[in-house]
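Chapter review: from sequence to fold.
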Amino acid sequence: MKPFEKYPNECEQMIEACRRLHDRNMLAAGDGNISLRVQDGILITPSGRPKAFIEPHEIALITLDNQILYGDPSGERLMHLHVYKSCEKAISVVHAHPPHAIAWSVAYPDMRELPNNCLSEVVLAAGRIPIAPYARPGTGQMGAVLDLCLPDYRLIVLSRHGGLSWGESLEEAYMGMERLEHSAEILYKAKTLNGLSFLEEEEMQALRKIRIQLGDKTR
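The token string follows.
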């Protein structure tokens, strides 16, 4: 049975997430990819296709050891598979090209995380948002730079490339990408308006304690 026949709801949910990312200007043309763990392996979006227009029959199916079971899977599937192998709780991975998040890595190439002491929501929703060093897309180099962030962080800026989020559901992974870009945009606007200002360390400690109570999921 073909994956879109066996997993119709999951395929539709992936397509809907792609369309939402496109509508929010986080995907252009054939950029980005989404994957979802299922019983038979990993559902993943097709290679090179505009994500705003993909159809259920184009969703590919691969194994955790990169065997293609159906379709023409994304050329960046090694990055997705590395996340699944590194994060036992990972059920879904979203990779998009959020403009403001990428812009921070271009403007500040030595920055290793988005400022998390400006916004309470960054701490409460994600803890921290690291920026992984640049690696050539679609290569094994992506695994090495992701190892600096996994499994501790679920939202990651990929320097000069994009953003990556993973979660215990497709919803969490998708919402993580929204959180990543929204935070990056607020920080960008604050920087351009009058520069960044920072929360007191005492408040940061209080926020970190709340984050621990909330748990690891992205919110």
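Two observations follow directly from the output. Residues 3-214 form a domain with the L-fuculose-1-phosphate Aldolase fold (CATH 3.40.225.10). The chain has eight helices and eight strands.
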